[in-house]
Amino acid sequence: MPQTQVKQVVAALIIRNGKILICQRTENQPMAFKWEFPGGKVETNEELKAALRRELNEELAIEATVGTKIAVIQHTYRTGNAVELHFYRVDEYEGEVQNRIFRDVQWVERQKLPSYDFLEADVAFIKEISAGKVL
Q: Distances in Å between the alpha carbon of 85 and those of 6, 17, 27, 71, 94?
């Protein structure tokens, strides 16, 4: 079986007033209607934090101050696609959050995260966040 290249992905844990921003994919995106944290693919030769700042500007129209790396998770989907997710904390940003590409965007209390249908790669991490083990 051919070796699958691992896609580098960055994601933001944007926190405001004790709530975390989550985003729902549209019907036109892969894994439609699943919830995720904002972020996206890292371009070739792009630094991780720079990629996250770019993605947050494209998706939400904000200029983020990317903070500490919280976690790195590797996941291989049943399709064989593999991702390495780099999660960063974002406590500060300039601009108002605008939904530019998602079906929905919500601020959610940590304990309520498991009630949302997240991407498979995020599920175990969601449980840790909701239990207060992370953040």
A: 10, 25, 22, 8, 24
